[in-house]
Specification:
Chain lengths: 337, 446
């Protein structure tokens, strides 16, 4: 019984939040890693791309809600997600046409493109604030819980509650579908294979007749889809605030680098590594340890929290440094800079 | 041979002329601001512009001279700000008595753990035993450190937490905090350079971005150090207080003889004094940076930047040189951070945001001309002026656009609110336009 209680507490406070956060980070890191693999620069505007796509999706959600169109128990935002992706893709393709293409033609150094993406970041940040302001926006509707605390306790007779919120479940399912689709696309379709070829060896890909502009276009569309999905899921599960999305840049980059920049599998794994470390190190383990301690005397007196939650950036960063020191190309083999 | 020297000479002269014209233009912008808005606004912009010029100088040293991509500017500025508190605020005797020494012991223990782990890693032969031993030292050391530190922190923070609740500083003159800020930032840069040796472009960027966030997180959460988000206000000032000036008969008489009322005169006088102090520091640093740029050392740095492999083949220790210039540039950022906090008179960790304190400085350097010290300073002053002026200009623009619209229309309200967000958009556009059409900046590297 004590053991079961400990496991439930662990699932409730560590595993479920970390898996949800990890899925969001994985989707974000996939976007970063694709841009890095195909366009060969670190896209600092990625957090703001997420915020932009989410903003569009939020506007459509509000419009649907105003029209009385809903998905019943599911959040309306899921209905608005494809429209958000379309809006974000148009914007991103526009930026590529107006800004990035010029530097690609010039074969500018990657670091110049990084600075260019800083300019895009400023512009997108301004555009998002212009459209939706800087405040918290809540756009989640529909049912709130799949499993709530009371019914779980009644059904199992355990002391510890287990809560599964609907947005959390949606995050897991949507992220799983998105990742599966992406890998199917990259590994099975002609366009996906040409993207991988382009990422592995640009000159050879060009020689074999792959159209680089088309590869770049498809990449941006996929990046917009991943970024918007990640942003909407994060907003549904937590809340939408433009500045928070900008700050997600650090854990997202940490995930992509830990996994190996340019490697999609690495990005997914990296997302979960970062999420589990952040949640695990900033969680107060007192409750779980109390159930596990065989006698009262061995129960911990403090909270057993390794670091306060405000230091979660420090956690992603420490892992990033450790990986860079011991495996400079990431857990999975990524491209070295 | 002489033809080559002649063209180069002409190029240098044209560079000087261009610089002189652009700096005169900058002065004219400030003069127009003073004449149309008020001289107080113009001086405020000038003062922060001078500090921004120093920040840009620091980034230019790292990026323009050595190609190091540091986007942790915010963290080094915050370290400089912290130095102001640690140097100039009076010590809190009670807090020291309550747990100061224990706290210091805890910190020493933490540092000792890290040093022990590093030494162990270096001394033992590679293998599983080494990994396990290092982990044991780190984990054991961490819990020991927390066991010593936590009670001390609680004791210190409970001392009159509404007004102090921190250890305080040394109670020394605040001007001393400027060089100390440089030293603290240099120390931080040394640690970063040690844990991230030879990190190149993208990786160094992410590493510095992360470290800046961590420094801000520490400042926000470690209340015993500088009161966290409760802020330390009322820092001592290097210049007289306005109210003291207004109370002094001699000052009031002199103001009256110039036809100024005492309040305006005192604020102008104080801002002017700050401006002189900042300009002096800027000129000294600019002179040093110019000397460095034109010395054999500067030529070596540029050689490394332009072709690292060739420089290494010539026997230059690239990693060491990179570490050196990273520390020097960060020290300048620390000095600028301390100056900024001195000007504000308070340390407010909650206000440090990467867009304002890291990426904006980058815009300054790129717009001014990376690799050119004068360009960086010009960029710092110009972009700061624009940053301040975009808001009134945006309001005016939105006012003009929305004037024909009926009152109460949602679009009118939305557009007028949106004027506040014009800043980021404008900065992004300026950066993109300069990168596209004048990638070497206003004052290109010679």
């Amino acid at each position: 019984m004590e053991l079961l209680n400990a496991l439930v507490a662990l699932a409730n406070y560590v595993v479920i939040p970390a898996v949800a956060y990890g899925s969001q980070l994985a989707l974000g890191a996939l976007g970063v890693t694709l841009v890095y693999g195909i366009l060969r620069f670190s896209n600092f505007a990625h957090g703001d791309t997420m915020a932009f796509g989410t903003t569009i999706a939020i506007f459509f959600t509000w419009a649907f809600q105003g029209l009385g169109v809903t998905l019943g128990p599911l959040p309306t935002a899921l209905l608005a997600l494809p429209l958000g992706i379309a809006g974000c893709a148009l914007f991103v393709l526009g930026t590529d046409k107006v800004i990035y293409r010029f530097y690609r033609r010039q074969r500018a150094a990657p670091v110049i493109l990084v600075i260019v993406s800083m300019g895009v970041m400023f512009v997108m940040n301004g555009v998002v604030r212009f459209m939706i302001g800087v405040d918290d926006q809540n756009f989640a509707d529909g049912a709130r819980f799949v499993i709530d605390a009371r019914s779980f306790r009644d059904a199992t007779g355990l002391d510890e509650p287990l809560v599964l919120r609907l947005p959390t479940l949606i995050t897991l399912v949507t992220a799983a579908i998105a990742v599966a689709l992406l890998f199917w696309f990259l590994n099975r379709t002609r366009t996906g294979k040409s993207m991988r070829a382009f990422s592995d060896n640009e000159d050879l890909a060009l020689l074999s007749g792959i159209n680089p502009e088309r590869v770049v276009m498809v990449t941006w569309i996929i990046v917009a889809a991943l970024a918007t999905t990640a942003g909407v899921l994060y907003g549904l599960e937590k809340s939408f605030k433009p500045f928070v999305y900008f700050q997600l840049l650090l854990p997202i980059f940490a995930s992509a680098i830990v996994g190996g920049l340019g490697n999609p599998v690495g990005a997914v794994v990296g997302g979960f590594v970062i999420a589990f470390s952040e949640v695990g190190i900033t969680y107060a383990w007192k409750k779980v340890l109390e159930y596990l301690a065989p006698t009262e005397a061995l129960e911990p007196s403090g909270l057993v929290q390794l670091l306060s939650t405000d230091y979660k950036f420090a956690v992603s960063f420490a892992i990033l440094i450790l990986v860079l020191l011991f495996r400079p190309t990431g857990l999975f083999k990524g491209q070295s800079v | 041979m002489s033809a080559v020297t002649d063209t180069r000479h002409e190029g240098v002269e044209r560079g000087w002329a261009r610089g002189a014209i652009l700096f005169a233009g900058m002065a004219a912008l400030l003069a127009i601001t003073g004449a149309t808005m008020s001289w107080n606004v113009a001086l405020t912009v000038l003062n922060m512009g001078l500090v921004s010029g120093i920040m840009a100088l620091g980034v230019n040293l790292q990026w323009g001279f050595a190609g190091l991509f540091n986007i942790g500017v915010m963290g080094f500025l915050a370290l400089g700000g912290l130095a102001c508190v640690l140097v100039a605020m009076p010590p809190t005797g009670e807090a020291w008595a309550a747990g100061g020494l224990r706290l210091m012991a805890g910190l020493a223990l933490g540092a000792g753990t890290v040093v022990a782990a590093v030494l162990l890693w270096g001394r033992m032969s590679p293998g599983r035993a080494r990994t396990l031993a290092m982990l044991a030292v780190l984990v054991g050391g961490f819990f020991l450190y927390r066991a010593v530190l936590d009670p001390a922190v609680a004791a210190v923070e409970s001392v009159d937490s509404a007004s102090t609740g921190y250890l305080g500083g040394l109670g020394l003159p605040i001007l001393l905090a400027w060089p100390v800020g440089g030293l603290v930032a240099a120390g931080g840069a040394w640690i970063i350079g040690k844990i991230a040796p030879g990190l190149r472009s993208d990786y160094l960027a992410i590493a510095t971005l992360g470290i800046a966030e961590i420094i801000i997180a520490i400042l926000k959460n470690e209340d015993w150090l500088a009161r966290g988000v409760k802020n330390v206000s009322g820092l001592p000032r290097p210049v007289p207080l306005e109210v003291d000036l207004q109370a002094s008969q001699g000052f009031v008489d002199r103001a009256a003889s110039l036809g100024l009322d005492p309040v305006t005169a005192s604020t102008l006088w104080v801002k002017g004094l700050y401006g002189l102090l900042f300009a002096a520091v800027l000129l000294i640093l600019l002179w040093l940076a110019q000397m460095a740029l034109n010395s054999p050392w500067g030529r070596m740095m540029r050689a490394i930047r332009d072709n690292e492999v060739a420089a290494e083949a010539m026997g230059k220790d690239v990693t060491r040189r990179h570490l050196q210039i990273f520390i020097l540039g960060s020290a300048i950022l620390g000095i600028a951070g301390a100056m900024m906090t001195t000007l504000d008179g308070q340390l407010t960790p909650g206000t440090y945001q990467p867009l304002r304190f890291t990426f904006l400085i980058w815009v300054m350097v790129i717009v001014g001309g990376s690799g050119n010290n004068f360009g960086a300073v010009l960029g710092g002053m110009l972009i700061w002026w624009l940053w301040v002026m975009v808001e009134p200009m945006g309001l005016w623009l939105m006012g003009a656009i929305t004037a024909p619209m009926p009152d109460g229309l949602w679009l009118k309200d939305h557009l007028q609110d949106a004027a506040a967000h014009m800043r980021l958009l404008t900065m992004g556009l300026v950066l993109l336009l300069v990168l596209r059409f004048s990638p070497r900046g206003l004052l290109p590297e010679r």
